[in-house]
Design goal:
single chain; alpha/beta; Chromosomal Replication Initiator Protein Dnaa, Chain: A; 3 domains; 5 strands; binds adenosine-5'-diphosphate; binds magnesium ion; DNA-binding; lipid-binding; nucleotide-binding; lipid binding
């Protein structure tokens, strides 16, 4: 028994542009475990699909390669197993269990914080499996560099191989995920409701799923289709408060103005290009969004498809420039006024 949940498969994981690499790498591992990307670390915030992707690897191997022994555990189970084995003076059975794995999948290793003897044990398990070319994959809710209460030598094992980052899905992917979940449950939901949900629930896939579950349950209860009004009413507590009412300025208005000011395309600001002018325009759009809307840096990051630290960095950079250069300060003020007047 590998403790895998068969619902987690590659087929029903929908990658977006940002997570495509992680998705394809996980698939490559599943096809050739222990060969190329060993060990592998999948990290990212809560509800972004770490467990789903990890178990997809396990389920794929169990199906295509049933001779391989797959073990999936959470770090919590690993810890409890280890403690039990000590209490029952049966450390060898613990070792045998984990070291006979061809593929060891350990979920949520941040749980091992400050658990130094379990970390020791994992360190030895890791070394044995690694030497024998057995595949090891970990997940963690943050980059390893941000883990506290871990031995350095274990941290260095976690990051030795391939590191994959999962980030929040973009709008189109949120729509695709919602549609796929509706299809899987054989329910139909109006496109207007799907768009409303995808526009407003940007945090993670778990929240997206939770909202859908709420609506489907409600729809069954009242035996009617979900209209946009019903969705708005039912989800109002789940959807984070919109921006302050008097300044209802959308990010797209800001991006549009900044793009025309710099004479670049809107798509370039949200895109990946790193030429000086586009980078300047992007930083400015991020800075102005933070200054004149109520969006959090995380929400801004979701919009611009960048992580939280990149957003903070852009804001700090423009802030610095503004202080050092009065021309820039004047240009920023004028842009801000334009945006505000166009939003009235
Ligand atoms: P994590 O382990 O990162 O907290 P999970 O893997 O438990 O997140 O994902 C939360 C829920 O969202 C699960 O039901 C999972 O199937 C679903 N999910 C996450 N990412 C995706 C995705 N890209 N496509 C489809 N479903 C997803
Ligand atoms: Mg998880």
């Amino acid at each position: 028994n590998s403790y895998l949940n068969p619902i987690y498969t590659f087929e029903n994981f929908i990658p977006c542009e940002n997570t495509n690499f992680a998705y394809n790498a996980a698939k490559a591992i599943a096809m050739n475990p222990g060969i190329n990307y060993n060990p592998c670390l999948i990290y990212g915030g809560v509800g972004l699909g770490k467990t789903h992707l990890l178990q997809s690897v396990g389920n794929y191997i169990e199906k295509e390669n049933p001779k391989k022994k797959v073990i999936y555990v959470t770090a919590e189970t690993f810890t409890n197993d280890f403690i039990n084995s000590l209490q029952q003076k049966n450390a060898s059975s613990f070792r045998i269990k984990y070291r006979k794995a061809d593929v060891l999948l350990i979920d949520d290793i941040h749980f091992l914080q400050e658990k130094i003897s379990t970390q020791e044990e994992l360190f030895h398990t890791f070394n044995d499996l690694y030497e024998a070319n057995k595949q090891i994959i970990f997940t963690c809710d943050r980059p390893i560099s941000e883990l506290k209460g871990f031995t350095d030598r274990l941290k260095s094992r976690f990051t030795r191989g391939l590191n994959l980052n999962l980030t929040a899905p973009d709008y189109e992917t949120r729509v695709a995920i919602l549609k796929k979940k509706c299809e899987a449950q054989n329910v139909r939901i109006f496109d207007s409701v799907i768009s409303y949900m995808a526009e407003n629930i940007k945090t993670n896939v778990r929240d997206l799923e939770g909202s859908l579950t709420t609506l489907i349950a409600y729809s069954k209860l009242i035996k009617t289709n979900i209209t946009l009004e019903i969705a708005q009413e039912q989800l109002k507590n789940l959807i984070s408060a919109p921006m302050a009412s008097e300044q209802d300025i959308s990010i797209s208005t800001i991006v549009k103005e900044v793009a025309s000011y710099y004479n670049v395309e809107i798509s370039e600001i949200k895109g990946k290009k790193r030429t000086a002018i586009i980078k300047d325009a992007r930083n400015l759009a991020i800075y102005l969004t933070r200054k004149i809307t109520q969006y959090s840096t995380t929400e801004i990051g979701n919009y611009f498809d960048r992580d939280h630290s990149t957003i903070t960095h852009s804001i700090d950079k423009v802030d610095q420039e503004r202080k050092q250069n009065s021309d820039i300060a004047a240009a920023l003020d004028s842009l801000e006024n334009t945006i505000k007047s166009k939003s009235k």
